[in-house]
Design a protein that fits this description.
By secondary structure, the chain is of the alpha/beta class. It is about 25% helix and about 25% strand. Strands 1, 2, 3, 4, 5, 18, 19 and 20 form an eight-stranded mixed beta sheet that branches. Helix 2 links the parallel strand 9 and strand 10.
């Protein structure tokens, strides 16, 4: 039994001051104000020192950590993210992988997880293969741009079916509806995300009944809004903002390059605090930094000068969002833990409750990580 004392306990919509959390066998067994929680005499004491204690972070969309892609060295990424409070992670497999390398990546990550070397792995985020080939970095490596064919994708669906939780699509791709039907038949609980797309709102909305409920890095790699001269049109972003069912992923980097701070605040105003998901979308790319972006220390660029994901972990995104949105630590936990868990139906994590897995992090008011508790064990 462990007792976390002197804790400001983060709840989805408020904070419990001077709190205590009891943990046993990797599970939260009780929590509340100190006066209401009986601490067993033999409990191991963990002093939060009046910092905030919230649920472990859930990063549903990231490609790399610790200097390596998850497809290459998942064990390195796992350890690095645990240091940063990411207790649940979904490696993103990108459309730059051909079929053979998609399968190899899936096998390598699952094997690492089954050996116990990737304990915070919770499933795959399939960022491809069928996205719009005109959007995103590494476009020249997209071997899936020529057509959506069952003979090409059925083996991939079958091979990943036990672990895939999110599958990204570009709704405008010809043949994509049959692909979605086949994914849904094989993986009934799979969630779909609109990604790298120039779809119209009507094309996006067509897939909501199939389970499209996430917008991949909202406002990034999305279509034009050109209409008539001096008249704005609508695209994927407007469809996401309009449809309350859809969660909006945001990459919140230090200078607001992916999503300018005003847009972050606008999306929050439109979507509400229950439909924002912070992601890191960490990538590895060593292209030159374009002029004017010298202070962009937590994002990457490819050799064409395009933004190529971030270089940050999710705790840093939480730190950035405090400044860009003016939100509270409580809100940051909601965006980076509660909301992603709920979007995927993971009801045993993402918020502090009796019976939930004891993935907890202790942070200060600036979201600096002080301690990480993973499955009930202090790291």
């Amino acid at each position: 039994m462990k007792a976390i004392i002197n804790a400001n306990i983060i709840m989805p919509d408020h904070v419990i001051p001077n709190g205590v959390i009891l943990v046993d066998n990797g599970v939260i067994v009780d929590f509340g104000k100190a006066k209401n929680v009986q601490i067993p005499a033999n409990a191991e004491i963990i002093d939060a020192e009046n910092n905030f204690v919230g649920p472990g972070l859930v990063d549903i969309h990231t490609h790399a950590a610790g200097g390596y892609y998850f497809v290459d060295k998942p064990e390195v990424g796992s350890k690095e993210l645990l240091k940063h409070g990411v207790t649940s992670v979904m490696p993103a497999l990108y459309y730059s992988l051909d079929k053979e390398n998609f399968v190899k990546a899936i096998d390598n990550i699952i094997d690492c997880h089954e050996k116990g070397e990737f304990p915070n792995f919770i499933g795959f985020y399939m960022e491809g293969p069928y996205l719009n080939p005109g959007f995103g970095c590494d476009q020249s490596k997209n071997s899936w741009r020529f057509g959506v064919e069952r003979k090409d994708y059925m083996d991939l669906i079958e091979h990943s079916k036990d672990y895939t939780k999110v599958w990204c699509i570009a709704p405008e791709r010809e043949g994509i509806e049959q692909f979605v039907r086949d994914v849904k038949k094989t993986i009934p609980n799979c969630v779909f995300a609109v990604a790298h797309s120039a779809a119209t709102p009507e094309q996006v909305e067509k897939f909501i009944p199939y389970g499209l409920k996430i917008a991949t890095h909202h406002t990034n790699a999305t279509g034009t809004i050109e209409h008539y001269s001096e008249c704005r049109g609508v695209c994927v972003d407007e469809a996401v903002n309009y449809n309350k069912e859809i969660y909006a992923e945001l990459i919140c980097d230090r200078i607001g390059a992916h999503v300018v701070p005003y847009m972050q605040r606008l999306v929050r105003r439109i979507k509400g605090d229950d439909r924002i998901i912070l992601i890191s979308d960490q990538f590895i790319s060593d292209g030159p930094v374009p002029e004017g972006f010298e202070e962009a220390t937590d994002i990457n660029f490819d050799w064409a000068g395009e933004i190529a994901g971030s270089g940050m972990t999710l705790d840093l995104a939480c730190k950035n969002v405090l400044f860009h949105m003016g939100c509270s630590v409580c809100d940051a936990f909601r965006f980076a833990s509660t909301n992603p868990a709920r979007a995927l139906g993971l009801w045993d994590r993402g918020y502090i409750a009796k019976g939930n897995v004891a993935d907890l992090i202790i942070v200060n008011h600036l979201f600096d990580i002080k301690k990480v508790i993973f499955k009930g064990e202090k790291l």
